[in-house]
Amino acid sequence: RIVHVNGRYLPEDQATVSIFDRGFLMADGVYEVVSVLDGRLLDFEGHMKRLSRSLDELGMTHPMTDEEWLEAHRRLIAENDITDGLVYLQVTRGNPGDRDFAYPPKDTPPTVVMFTQSKPGLAENPQADSGLRICTLPDLRWARRDIKTVQLLYPSMAKMEAKARGCDDAWMVEDGLVTEGTSNNAYIVKDGTIVTRQLSSDILHGITRASVLRLAQEAQLAVEERSFTVEEARAADEAFVTSASAFVMPVVAIDEATVGTGAPGPVARRLREIYLDEMRRTAI
Ligand code: PMP
């Protein structure tokens, strides 16, 4: 695999980053994941806007323009012959040459790392037909979940705990209310209305969420952006999650409760179809 490090394209075993990099020592960095279908990028502009915002929120230097990012994504897709899969990008605050809590001087160059992951048949994931089993766990992350940082230890722990309990993934809960999944936004459907938590610093502002909510409204589906309880979710007609790599993925169980009929619901199935159609139509 050919990867990108600070403007260079190298075989992955030749790509290196300093042990003093703040991404490594302090989780001082941000990332994005853009899906690829038929060699083209999905919702690219949305991901670039969020990257820009994450960098600004942390006072980090923007290492490349949107045009340069696009060129780098396209080059990696071409060099690695990616049909379906994803491009991962990460920007960290670079290498100050030592360990210090204080940020390094503004002119310290950020570290950029990018790589591809090939996922043949990404849009035909059989999990979309079986649905996910979700376990609920307390949300023990920091309070700025709107910034897409590489500080992913708690979501990893939650995912492992969910798997240990026989679930596919976890929904995290704070004050009795669902925040989001370990790597996706969470939704329920009740009496035809789609409910998902309102945007705030409590959750990541999902790019897929924004597209799915827009498409739902265009399809005349009712949408309510508000918090919901675990009890409400267990009693819902349907549930689902969204993310750039899973698209729209139905949820069929929450803890011991079966959601609806226990099979992927019609709203989730329809949104998945509408979303994939729109992504294929607008991919670049
Ligand atoms: N919430 C969290 C915590 C995530 O990690 C992700 C995926 N990165 C999402 C939501 C979904 O965001 P997006 O649709 O932009 O992939």
From TrEMBL:
Pfam families named in the record: Aminotran_4
GO cellular component: cytosol
Reaction(s) this enzyme catalyzes, per UniProt: L-leucine + 2-oxoglutarate = 4-methyl-2-oxopentanoate + L-glutamate; L-valine + 2-oxoglutarate = 3-methyl-2-oxobutanoate + L-glutamate; L-isoleucine + 2-oxoglutarate = (S)-3-methyl-2-oxopentanoate + L-glutamate
Pathway assigned in UniProt: Amino-acid biosynthesis; L-isoleucine biosynthesis; L-isoleucine from 2-oxobutanoate: step 4/4; Amino-acid biosynthesis; L-leucine biosynthesis; L-leucine from 3-methyl-2-oxobutanoate: step 4/4; Amino-acid biosynthesis; L-valine biosynthesis; L-valine from pyruvate: step 4/4
Amino-acid biosynthesis recorded as keyword: yes
Record EC number: 2.6.1.42
Keyword line: Amino-acid biosynthesis, Branched-chain amino acid biosynthesis, Pyridoxal phosphate
CDD domains found in the cross-reference section: D-AAT_like
GO BP annotation list: amino acid biosynthetic process; branched-chain amino acid biosynthetic process
GO molecular function, one term: branched-chain-amino-acid transaminase activity
CC cofactor: pyridoxal 5'-phosphate
EC class (word): transferase
Family: Belongs to the class-IV pyridoxal-phosphate-dependent aminotransferase family.
Entry function: Acts on leucine, isoleucine and valine.
Xref: PANTHER family: AMINO-ACID AMINOTRANSFERASE, AMINODEOXYCHORISMATE LYASE
Name this polypeptide is given: Probable branched-chain-amino-acid aminotransferase
Organism: Paracoccus chinensis
Lineage: Bacteria, Pseudomonadati, Pseudomonadota, Alphaproteobacteria, Rhodobacterales
